[in-house]
Amino acid sequence: MDIPQTLRERLAARKVIPFIGAGVSMAIRSKRDDSRLFPSWKELLSHAADRLEGDSKCREAAFVHAGLDLDDPDYLHIAEQAKKYLGPTWTRFLKEELNHDRNSVQDESLSMPKLLWQLGSRLIITTNYDKVLRWSCQNSGDCETWN
User: Fold this and answer.
1) What would the pLDDT profile of 62-110 be if each residue is shown by its tens digit?
2) How many CB atoms lie within 10 A of CB 36?
3) What pLDDT, in 10s, does the model give residues 9-53?
4) Three-class SS of residue 42?
5) Cβ-contact 139, 34 below 8 angstroms
6) Other CB atoms closer than 10 Å to residue 128's CB: what's the count?
7) Which of 68, 90, 102, 138 is most open to solvent, judged by the fewest CB atoms within 10 Å of its CB?
8) CA–CA separation, 15 vs 119, rounded Å?
9) Structure pTM?
10) What is the DSSP letter of 69?
């Protein structure tokens, strides 16, 4: 795929602020078994349904699974329901799924996020909850997180 001329010019002039989504995180591999370290939205919510089953909330789990089986799942609505059904364990569940340690990452799999820092922007915007951009920042002292 060719990068359009206008985008190349704006990148060179440092007039682009990258917006990074889940695809960058999904490229990160586990050092342990070479699997993807972070789940897709569908996988995350399927894991939430599995957790609900493990907590003997089978009807709630069935609701989440049924929503995921639709042709065009509404992930936000399903996530809201999974959060409601998991109640106080929702935060712990998300930490288990998304809060991985840097030592569990294959260094080579950070090549794409490292390239993003080379685009020349001093600001990168992301909706990701993980620490991939921080891990890939060459000088972590220059990396600041705003909430």
Assistant:
1) 999 999 999 999 999 999 999 999 999 999 999 999 999 999 999 999 9
2) 14
3) 888 888 888 899 888 999 999 999 999 999 999 999 999 999 999
4) helix
5) no
6) 17
7) 138
8) 10
9) 0.81
10) T
